[in-house]
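Usage

Read records sequentially. Each one opens with the input sequence:
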Amino acid sequence: MQSQDVAPRPAPPSGPVVDVEQAEAALVEHYPRLVRLAYLVLPPSLGRNRRVLTAHALTQRALPRGRTSTSPIPAQATGRDSDPGYALVRLHVVRTALEAGLPLRRRAWPTRSQLPPLLPQVWGLRLFPRSGGADELALDQRLSALSGPARAAYVLRSMEKLSDADVHKVLTAAGAEDPGAALTEAGGVEAQESLLHSPEFDPCSLHARPTDLIRRRQHLKAALAAGAALTVCGALFALPGGGWGPDGAAAPSSARNPAAQAALNPGKLTRVAPTVWRASSRTDFSVWPARGNLTQDTALLHRALSVWARPGKSVQVSATPGTQEGAPPGPPQLLYAGDVDQARVVLLYDGLRIARYAEPRDGTSGAALDFARADGATMAEAGAVLLNRTDGNVRYLTAPWVTKAAERDLRTPTAGTMGLDRSPDGVTAPLASPVQRTGDCTSWNVLQLTDASGTRLSTDLGELIPAHLTTGRPSTPHEAAGTAALRDWAPYACSLAAVRSEGVRSVNAWQYAQQPLPDASGTATWVCTRADTWRGGGTRVLAQFHTPDGAYGAIAAKAENSPACGSRDPHVLAGVLWKSGAGAWYLLAAGSKDTASINATGGVSGSAQGTLLAVRTEQGAQAGLKGSLTDGREITGLR
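and closes with the structure output:
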């Protein structure tokens, strides 16, 4: 990788004076953006783990020690760039990120930025951003070939939207030796702003993997042997088998396990015939045939299996919460192997997990390995698997029983669908992903699949298997593809962003109450959305309130790992402070249909028989809710 010297820091020109408090406010408000900026400017040669920690450290150290004059760099009229506090901390981040990329010199003390960060510090884990698609990998490789100032110029130009003249001033203030040459070098890389905002370059949304366990164990044993105060722990670690007792009838640790060896043999992959699914009683991934133009590419399949068993340091590994990343217990099933956009993709299934291996077409550098749980999948949940993400779009491999694929905007139920072409292998045309969009939520595209049993909707939540969408009472949910169901989902579609990357299996929207609003303001609806996960735990429940004049539902209450709104406990009670068109404030509350009474407690006093409560109150009032069901059981407001 090229490197370029950074000149001594010039004295900052006189400009607006920034207080420490103003700089701190800008740093806190724009912290994710500043950390992303530092991550992109830092040299990839640091490794992803140190690059993540260094980006956070540099950003946290960007706070000035006192009142500081900023460089008179022209700013846009509105937004963060009109804030001199943001301009100041951004300059500090760029300067220190450039310093961190300089090579160490003999007879010269390294700067603080060139040393591993003292804080933040993580022990026993390696942290790295989520893996992206082939386009993100290609951009990362092109940026790694640039010098540090050129990377900074590219990011300031593409992500920060600064003009070349302003980029030149920022680089000069940051101490770059030749800003003009940096701008010229950065011009050789195509501007791709949307990719810079992708999860691939987000050091605030991270995955964790253990460090080198064998080396860590060796270091720990050495430390234990050297410290007399830890003799008891040293004895435990010194026992055969890691201190758990004798291995019994187990073979020696050096023996090879036949099943583990077979799992690495492409010739032993399970390949299901194309017609098995037609006669099978199973409707999950186990009856998917092997598809794709590279199913006979033994070298590719061997690489995929080997990386699954032993992912190297350069492999970007991600897994949904609750999904193990270890090697398969035996030969897995081949679902797909083929060219997708600018990548070669292999999909494998071991009965519990879907594993996706992807590598660029022109080599293996930048390979990615993704895992998702898929045990107990139904026909609705085994309808599609993600193949690739690129330019904010996704491609899916659809199940063999799918007869038609389309996309539709969940925010606009009357807009109809747009057909998705599919290859003979069942690969869809690109579909705009709602989770990779930036800015306001004005639409939410979902995947609509049709087979002999009906039509279903699924949504991308940033994982391999899209989440199945349903509506209705938790005990009897039904598909969300009907006209009434689409109307129910429309105001709440954007709330799906709250469960992105959480291993969500399905999301049900249940309209549990309608409430006439005071002051003749129409009728509001109460909906409870429940996101269930593949792992069982981590469920998310949102009670949402929607008025006739509102475009979106407002979140009135939320809970995690709660049975509310689920098949085990199909009850809910929630409330919200609401201001009428006449300017009066009310506490409004609603319970499911088996609610017998509702009582307001705390700063608001009132009660009502039945499922609805409306009490006049003041702005900012603090209230609690209690209720009773028709069977006598007491419930509290969702929280």
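Summary fields computed downstream for this record:
- The first strand starts at residue 17 and ends at 18.
- Residues 342 and 510 are 41 Å apart (CA to CA).
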